[in-house]
């Protein structure tokens, strides 16, 4: 918007210029979070994972102003001598990566192979959406951990603990299980599901249990969350970040999707791009672990675990695995028909 104003002011010297973007302008022309897809397979023996293979395909995750030594601003592409931009780039592994963020599971998995595939051509621009590739990667890994537990005839919590030597990770899983009454009976068409990760592999540990009903539609009633961010400086700040991230991830998981045709983006208002309403927001119960370890960030730790927990809860409620996001009624019907 600032560049739009500067270009207009340059064309109209001596006159004040005000630029206002409509909601449709912002939703229709801003970059979007990267489209992503993952393919995961594993082998089991004696109830344990003996090999793991994971491929993820993704656009780049950053086209912020200045990326790849270019302005990165849309108006610059309309100048008499227009800028042309390369594909969105990915942060390096030293900064948490992009497409492969959290693609390496925290679990003790022998013979593992993890490969990232970055797409260099796509119909819409992509840039940094909160948690970058971690949202899809944790959703895929943790959904598959539940599928493997089911195949092995194991409880999903016990299955994770059996593959997790990290004591801090085990602790947050045990806390969230206790706080969510994991393993107790539920009503028909109601399920609990679990999701867990350590953000970026070196940040906050976060475990989420979702309680979901799946009848006419999918409704997330409660999210129980345990998080270890190391030494806690501001407990309210950590809780706010985790609650906000979990609520946003619930909206992504249940509703949010960008639609487009060959000419333009079609999701340009809150009807064509629906988000979670206040009445649909789940109850949140956040438990903090303060163990004296160095502090790490909390802001994006809940995104992926929340999506996985909801998906696993839906599978527990209806006995059908939905692997595409968002988890809409139509997506559930399609999964039932497969």
What is the approximate shape? Answer: globular
**Biggest sheet: strands, sense, closure?**
4 strands, mixed
Which structural class best describes the helix and strand composition?
Answer: alpha/beta
- Seen as an oligomer or otherwise, the chain set is single chain
CATH superfamily: Aldehyde oxidase/xanthine dehydrogenase, molybdopterin binding domain
Averaged pLDDT = 95
What is the CATH T-level topology? Aldehyde Oxidoreductase, domain 4
Cα-atom Rg, whole angstroms? Answer: 21 Å
Indicate the low-confidence ranges by residue numbers.
Answer: none
Terminal residue distance = 46 Å
CATH architecture: 2-Layer Sandwich
Question: Number of helix segments?
Answer: 8
Order the strands across the largest sheet as they lie in space.
6-7-8-9
Strand composition percent: 15-25%
The figure for the number of domains is 1
Helix fraction? 25-40%
Q: What is the element string, with H for helices and E for strands?
A: HHEEEEEHHHEEEHEHH
* Number of extended strands: 9
